[in-house]
Design a protein that fits this description.
- Helices cover about 55% and strands about 15% of the residues.
- It has about 190 residues and is an alpha+beta fold.
- It folds into three domains: about 50 residues; about 70 residues, no CATH class; about 40 residues, no CATH class.
- Strand 3 and strand 4 form a beta hairpin.
- The two termini are about 15 Å apart.
């Protein structure tokens, strides 16, 4: 049973990894076919754009928001009851806030509907948008600051700078997730 579960995870990881690579390769071939670019140039443009504009921010987004939540499903609303609560705000006025109370395995979870979000999770669409924004903010700053200390801006240095951002982010993620886990002995 454990081996089957590990195989399912390995197959899922393989599918999650291979599918975007195949899609990006098809986009690259499509770009090469319909433009004057060679296939190598279109391959560089497509995969370079993902490497520069998406990947560093995607990894960094997991540092700040380690959980990815599912999109809100409106079919689960039959178990929720709305309660109105008046509370005193910071300005000294009473404000009306709605709370959702749902029964889960005999325990009650109360979630503020005006905020509506778990502080440690974002959905996939938010993660993708945040990934582009973080990459666009962090990569140029790192390259320009390295230029300030005397490292010239060229293809190799930019590649290594982005690789350094990715590796440092992955190390932070690895330490963050492994500090909460007890050490297990592999048998």
């Amino acid at each position: 049973m454990i081996k089957k579960n590990k195989m399912d995870k390995a197959n899922k990881l393989t599918i999650i990894t291979i599918t975007p690579l195949i899609f990006l390769s098809l986009v690259s071939m499509f770009l090469a076919y319909f433009t004057k670019l060679s296939s190598l140039e279109s391959f560089r443009i497509v995969f370079g754009s993902i490497y520069v504009l998406f990947l560093p921010g995607f990894i960094i987004s997991y540092i700040f928001f380690p959980k990815t939540k599912k999109f809100d499903d409106k079919s689960n609303t039959e178990n929720k009851k709305n309660k109105e609560v008046f509370h005193l705000s910071k300005s000294g006025r009473f404000e009306n806030k709605k709370f959702s109370v749902s029964q889960t395995l005999g325990t009650q979870k109360v979630r503020d509907e005006t905020d509506g979000k778990d502080s440690n999770s974002i959905d996939l669409l938010e993660r993708i948008a945040l990934s582009f924004a973080l990459s666009i903010a962090i990569v140029p700053l790192a390259v320009f600051y390295l230029n300030l200390i005397g490292i010239k801006i060229n293809l190799l240095n930019s590649f290594l700078t982005i690789l350094g951002i990715i590796v440092i982010s992955l190390m932070i993620l690895w330490f963050k997730f492994n500090k909460n886990r007890p050490h297990q002995i592999l048998s």
